[in-house]
Structure formats: C-alpha cells, structure tokens
C-alpha cells in the first residue's frame, strides 16, 4: 500500500489588536483579530535531520502575520494578500497556503461573534 505524504505547518488562533476597518472609527479605535494560517510544504528533510532549515519555520509565519497586521488597512482582503505574498516568497517548497482572518465583534447593531475572510493559494500543478 502506498501513502501520500502531506506536511502542514499551522498557527491557529493567533490573537492580535489592529486598526483595520473601512470606517475611520474602526481605524482609530482598532479591534481584536484572530488569524489561522496553514502552510502545506515538504518537510521531509527536517523530519530526517532534525534541522529547521528543512522546513518552514513557524516563527517566520508569526513574524509575517504580526508585522502585516500592524499596517492599518481598510480591507482585510488587502492585509491577507500581503501576508500570502510574503509567505509564498519564503521558499519554493510551499505548495499551498490557507489564511483566515477573523474580526472579532464587528461593528453592527447586533451581536456577531466575528466576520472573516479566507484566502487560499495553491501552487500551479500541485495535486489537491
């Protein structure tokens, strides 16, 4: 029997305070955001050698997400694209990136736990 190996590295539930929002008030007041990012990569070298150079370092993912979240934007889509662009530039070993950004308690006249955007990139030719 043959197995297909899929390697994933994730940061889940990363909470940050940021000043994103379409309305000026949202940008001034800021709010809480929760980010989930998952990278599909080949970390066979790291699994064999115990060396971080053979994988995507999740500290780099943390740095990218927190840095880009500090840059105020009107739209989460814009923030997400900046994050994705930087992550896929890390290494050619990345086959797929999934990113969810949740805005906690968006400003509506009703209780809403969060609003969110999801963006997913898959390397051309990569079998899903």
In short:
By secondary structure, the chain is of the alpha+beta class. The chain is built from four helices and four strands; from the N terminus they run βαβαααββ. The protein has helices at 24-29, 44-49, 58-69, 76-88, and strands at 7-18, 31-41, 96-104, 114-122.
Helix share of residues? 25-40%
Across the major sheet, the strand order is 1-2-3-4
**CATH fold-level name:** GTP Cyclohydrolase I, domain 2
Number of strands: 4
Note the total helix count: 4
Architecture, CATH level 2? 2-Layer Sandwich
Element-level helix/strand string:
EHEHHHEE
Radius of gyration: 17 Å
CATH homology superfamily name: GTP cyclohydrolase I, C-terminal domain/NADPH-dependent 7-cyano-7-deazaguanine reductase, N-terminal domain
Fraction in beta strands: 25-35%
Mean pLDDT rating: 91
Task: Tell me what the structure shows.
- α3 runs antiparallel to α4.
- The protein has a four-stranded antiparallel sheet.
- 20% of the residues are buried.
- It is α+β, with helices and mostly antiparallel strands and 128 residues long.
- The mean pLDDT is 91.
- The protein has a single domain, classed as GTP cyclohydrolase I, C-terminal domain/NADPH-dependent 7-cyano-7-deazaguanine reductase, N-terminal domain (GTP Cyclohydrolase I, domain 2).
- It is built from four helices and four strands, in the order βαβαααββ.
- The protein is elongated and about 55 Å long.
- Residues 9-121 form the Dihydroneopterin aldolase/epimerase domain.
- Keywords: Folate biosynthesis, Lyase.
- Pathway: Cofactor biosynthesis; tetrahydrofolate biosynthesis; 2-amino-4-hydroxy-6-hydroxymethyl-7,8-dihydropteridine diphosphate from 7,8-dihydroneopterin triphosphate: step 3/4.
- Pfam families: FolB (PF02152).
């Amino acid at each position: 029997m043959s197995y297909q190996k899929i390697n994933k590295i994730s940061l889940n539930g990363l909470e940050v305070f940021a000043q994103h929002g379409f309305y000026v008030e949202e940008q001034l007041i800021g709010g809480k955001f929760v980010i989930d990012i998952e990278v599909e990569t080949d970390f066979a070298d790291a699994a064999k050698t115990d060396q971080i150079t053979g994988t995507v370092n999740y500290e780099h993912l943390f740095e990218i997400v927190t840095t880009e979240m500090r840059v105020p934007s009107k739209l989460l889509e814009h923030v997400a694209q900046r994050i994705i662009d930087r992550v896929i530039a890390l290494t050619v070993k990345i086959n797929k990136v999934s990113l969810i950004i949740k805005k906690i308690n968006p400003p509506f006249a009703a209780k809403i736990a969060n609003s969110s955007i999801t963006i997913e990139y898959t390397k051309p030719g990569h079998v899903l």
